[in-house]
Amino acid sequence: MNAFQGRVSLFQRVLPHYRKPFFNAFGKACTDGLYIFSGEPRPEEGIKPVVELEHAQLTLGKNLHIFGGRFYLAFQLGLIKWIKSCDPDVLIVEANPRYLSTPRAIRWMQNKDRPVIGWGLGSPDITSPLAALRLRKRKNFIQHFDTLITYSQTGASEYAKLGFPKERIFVAENAVTPSPPHPIPHRPDPEEVQQVRILFVGRLQERKKLDNLIHACSHLPEALQPNLVIVGDGPDRLHLAKIAEKVFPETIFTGALYGENLAQQFRQADLFVLPGTGGLAIQQAMSYGLPVIAAQADGTQADLIREGNGWQIPADDITALQSTLEKALGDKAALREMGAESYRIVSEEINIDKMVQVFVEALNQSQT
């Protein structure tokens, strides 16, 4: 893997635990050190933050949360003092204008004639009454960056639409797992499968739309009705269990699983389904050779889920979910072929090593 010769500082509002493997790998690629600053989430967010890293120096700061919902703003206390102590060659920040301490950090770097890289999802359309004003602020904000890194081709197109030069936009496809260290699991031949086993893994909360999945399974023709396994815990578990007991009692709730117990669920499944937003487990499912049905969300799924390995459906559309399930469950041989393509994608194209490689490329270009 290529490396960056220099000191890199990066700050995020919150450093989610699922990013730990990426930041450890990224730290190894920064020869003079990777220095990270992050704060704590709001209690209602349910985010488990990273508290230590093996290959990067993590400083835990304090976030000041202001307002909420669509008016949410944040300020990171102690950020400038931290940047001065790190004295980085390049700074990477979240490309989010809601974080009020970011502009001062950018100015500090620019006063020393050092590059700043923005890292973000993209810039989706704005439909609020103040859309014109917010759009103008977004355009002004991103022009302060030397380079942009985004998770998807969708995000890259959105930044280019705002007028940011295309040649300075890098796509680091969102990865939370390394290339699979294991071979694709052996599964029974399609003709031997009596019931397809559908798996969901994630936090049980309303936005995951698991009620839609349970109802959709219950409405399938009897010959196609699957085994449905829901792995995870969360505030919606009791509500979902009551729905399942009423309309699809075959549903299995395992609670939260980790390590080998979770791996076993992936190996036993035939199809992974994510009916709502989120999707960190998609790549993990693909690394076990599973085809995927997922709701369209922030655009990152478009690069990951393709015609050859799964289906993207409109968010919160139970009719589309049911018809897609019917199509998928009606061709077990195709599920095996699509699962093999999922495994190839995360092995060769979208994984943590590839993501780190793009970050290193962006760092190197930022200094030319």
SSE inventory with pairings:
Elements: E1 8-14, H1 20-28, E2 34-39, E3 57-60, E4 62-66, E5 73-77, H2 79-86, E6 90-94, H3 102-111, E7 116-120, H4 131-142, E8 147-150, H5 153-161, E9 169-171, E10 197-201, H6 210-218, E11 227-231, H7 237-247, E12 252-255, H8 259-268, E13 271-274, H9 281-287, E14 292-295, H10 301-304, E15 310-313, H11 318-329, H12 332-348, H13 352-366
Parallel strand pairs: 1-2, 1-6, 2-3, 6-7, 7-8, 8-9, 10-11, 10-13, 11-12, 13-14, 14-15
Antiparallel strand pairs: 4-5
Helix pairs in contact: 1-13, 6-7, 6-11, 9-12
Q: Identify the quaternary structure here.
A: single chain
Named at the architecture level, the CATH assignment of the largest domain is 3-Layer(aba) Sandwich
Nearest-integer average pLDDT? 94
Ends apart, CA distance between termini: 20 Å
At the first level of CATH, what is the class of the largest domain? Alpha Beta
Strand content: 15-25%
Tally of discrete structural domains: 2
As residue ranges, the low-confidence spans are none
In which range does the helix fraction lie? Answer: 25-40%
Major pleated sheet = 7 strands, parallel
Strand order of the largest sheet: 3-2-1-6-7-8-9
Shape: globular
Q: Number of helix segments?
A: 13
Beta strands, count = 15
Given helix and strand content, the structural type is alpha/beta
